[in-house]
Amino acid sequence: MRFQPLHKHATTDQVLLPAIKKRWSPRSFSNQQPEMSLLRRVFEAARWAPSASNEQPWRFIIGLKGDETYQKIFSALDSYNQLWAGTAPVLMLNIANHSSKRHPGRQNRWAEYDLGQALAYLSIQAMSEGLFAHQMGGFDADLASRLFDIPDDHVVVSVAVLGYPDDPDLLHPNLVEAEKAVRKRQDISEMVFSGKFGEPFRNW
Fold it and tell me: Which H or E element spans position 43?
């Protein structure tokens, strides 16, 4: 019998977009390759993210399972992420361009912030179409930079997986419990302040 995919919808205090409620980061991925038209759409969503002075500093290197790019990205992952990420059909390296196009010679200090916004747009578009993303910080950025000849003014910030979820019981035993765990978030009072830092905003 085919497994039943995990649905880890967020229990929210307010009504949110369905793609936000449904979005989570699985580790168990099938090897089903997304259609290229779908991949193109999620990167089109990233293209339309906001950025400081419209610099658009995000850059992505995409590897499809079985190709050399995929193997290079996988080799840069730490041992923990290599336990699960190798079944996913798409690996991507997420890069921020720190050189300003509008102000030559100056650094774009918001480049990594804007890359994060582009990835958020990408992940929500993906989720709205049933494609899941899992973003990772556990990798060797220096190795990735060498493997792909990343320019000195660009910074490799993260790696992400794109794909469709698979049976969580197929994961390494050390990962199954975390895969099935209930999603939790800190209370909004711990992140939205007024008056001074740490003083919760209470005028909702």
Answer: helix 36-47
In a domain, 186, yes or no: no
Domain that holds residue 119: 46-166
Digit-coded pLDDT (tens) for 34-80: 999 999 999 999 999 999 999 999 999 999 999 999 999 999 999 99
The verdict on residue 179 lying in a domain is no
Q: What residues are paired with 135 via a beta bridge?
A: 160
- Write the burial class of residue 159 (CB in 10 Å: 0-12 exposed, 13-18 middle, 19+ buried): buried
Q: Which letter, b or e, does each residue of 104-133 get, where b requires 16 or more Cβ atoms within 10 Å of its Cβ?
A: eeeebebbbebbbbbbbbbbbbbbbeebbb
**Max intra-chain CA distance, the chain:** 60
CATH code for the domain of 126: 3.40.109.10
pTM for this model (two decimals): 0.93
- Quick one: CA dihedral 111, 112, 113, 116, positive or negative? positive
